[in-house]
């Protein structure tokens, strides 16, 4: 509820899944693999899209607080739309770099599961958010993730024992999440 919100969200979900397919195809090709490789490794049509709406109220002392602490997203991809208030920063070459708000743009983060599948050829982006003194910031994030019981590890096509040994262990997404949330070694 409200009904209109449901309809808009369902429509958005359809478009997000189309965009996801396209991005995963391009990322697969970037690894020199068949276009469907990453999608099928993430569960194919069982891939999940989970929306989180972030709400950052104005903060009287923004220099003393963060909206979200530095982290990488544990999903495969994040598709993010902010409300036009800046605040997102990404870690690049040893500095926090502010991400511009481009009207109509969707920000795409590579998440942990793509890093694992690609055996580190793609790396999850470290990011954080600042708060704003005057304005409320909101962002709509869709996390694209495998089903919980899907086993994720470096793609066998990208691994060989001599030249490129696996850099990550293989485990279910549920196990990965549990370890990350509880700060256990992966
Ligand atoms: C997140 C996140 C960034 C933002 O929800 O994981 O990093 O811009 N959000 O709100
Ligand atoms: Ni995030």
Automatic annotation (TrEMBL):
* Alphabetical keyword list: Iron, Metal-binding, Vitamin C
Q: What single Pfam family name could you report for this chain, choosing any that match?
A: 2OG-FeII_Oxy
The record's InterPro entries line, in alphabetical order, gives: IPNS-like_FE2OG_OXY, IPNS-like_sf, Oxoglu/Fe-dep_dioxygenase_dom, Plant_2OG-oxidoreductases
Question: Where's the Fe2OG dioxygenase domain?
Answer: 46-146
Q: Does the keyword Hydrolase apply?
A: no
Q: What Gene3D superfamilies does this protein's entry cite? A: B-lactam Antibiotic, Isopenicillin N Synthase, Chain (2.60.120.330)
What GO annotations for molecular function exist for this entry?
L-ascorbic acid binding; metal ion binding
Enumerate the PANTHER family for this protein: OXOGLUTARATE/IRON-DEPENDENT DIOXYGENASE
Q: What is this protein called?
A: Fe2OG dioxygenase domain-containing protein
- Species this chain originates from: Linum tenue
